[in-house]
Amino acid sequence: MKNTPTNQYMFLVQGGACQDGGLSAEQMQAKMTEVYAWIDGLTRKGVMSAAQPLTPERKIVSGKNGSIVSDGIAAESKEAIGGFFIVNVATMDEAVNIARTCPMFNYGGQLEVRQIAELQRD
Amino acid sequence: MSRHGDSAGEAADHFFRHEGAKVVATLTAHLGTHRLQLAEDVVQEALLRAMQTWSYRGVPNNPAAWLTQVAKNLALNALQREQRWNEKQEGIAAEHTRWLSSTSEDMTHETFADDTLRLMFVCFHPELAPESQTALALRTLCGFSTAEIAAAFLTSEAAITKRLVRARQRIRELALPFAMPDTPALSSRLDGVLHTLYLLFNEGYKASAGERLVREELCQEAIRLVTLVTQHPATQEPRAHALLALMLLNAARLAARTDDAGNLLRLHEQDRTAWNQAMIHRGVLCLRHASQGGALSGYHIEASIAATHCMASDASATDWPRILHLYDQLLAITGSPVTAMNRAVAVARIHGAQAGLDALDNIRQRSVLEGNHLYHAMRGTFSAELGQTAAAVTHFRQAAKLALLPIERDFIARRIEECEAATKL
After folding, report:
1. Residue numbers in B near A22 (CB within 8 A)
2. Min Cα–Cα distance to chain A from B223, Å
């Protein structure tokens, strides 16, 4: 029996880290618990392949021969990427449907869903 | 370091709040009380980072060390930045830099508990206004946000922010040391700490408004803090144990005070099976512990009154003569008209409603009670029991005028309805 072909999709997590006025410790714990439960659930089902947070420190390297090193956008920015997930599903539609169940939307922020390109092996 | 695969929600209740508060205490211990605001700010940021990281990976094995380390790094950065901006300012002390750059793996529960207790003596310093003391304690010792404190005290966030700013400013002006008071002052300072914790508990215990959860948490926080006091060798006095007993024996019955719709219930209407027996048990043990040594405080007596209620299998089995005897003792200590008012209930239960009314009439500083809605509600209850319905309604109406909370006004409105229904019969 052949399995449904599986592709990898990456969710890039943007924003949602800082709220206007700030979350209370209690709210932060609630948010962490919710998001962790979501990731944990998908991990148990075997759908989640990787989930990694990124630390707020960042540098942008650019220019000829990488001559320009700058601090880039602030960690509090809406565009700042706070982490990524990689899920194993067959289609973009499935990936989007999973992304939609992510609890972090209650706290602002967005997910960018991208398919990870596969190399042709033959 | 991650615990991926464990069930979610593994972080204990209020874990962020309590761990964050511990780190605030530890940072303040090392950087000084004038840096309290800095400590609070970097801990808020550290919690934010914890939320982001732990969402993905689960809670690390030593979350307190993780938070402490991040907060220390942030504090070091902030202090260095501050120094760059203002070169005239004295440099960061070498010892601060050394401590902030060290690893945080060796923090023990005892260190955190010690720091928290010392911060308690800072927050509850008699030079700070009482309402500032409780607000500051909730912010720094308990990790509440200003919005949460405002909800608990039924006031605005702006008002709480003002109190907090004033309190931190006062601490800087007075250059309060981060230390337990020395022996001669310790006893009276401990009285102040216990009294403020008692007020904090009562704030939560008072008839709950919409923010019922927050108010129950005030009671839990007061219990947590007074527990710390009872565990430290310098402060584990009988009266501290008695205060803990009093809180446990009252908090055990908190959930039963309202029905599912949030209506206040009278003692005989409460479902006693909803009382928290484990808490009652702990409270009774505490009271026994407090009674060793013979020192007797008002807390001992109030705890004994609560214990007497807890021991009764139903309202009719309440040992009112014992409660009256305890109120007599308490009144001798406090001399407070509110104590005398509560005593009148015991009088009425033993000798009848008229005796209760007489007891209220005989209170010397009765004028103080005129603005208290409970006083009028009590008169209304006694009058109604005597069949003096018209007088009862008058008293209840006065009580409704003075009651601040909707839940209290609803309670009184139901009593008025009962009176009116009785007249029609």
Report:
1. 44, 145
2. 18
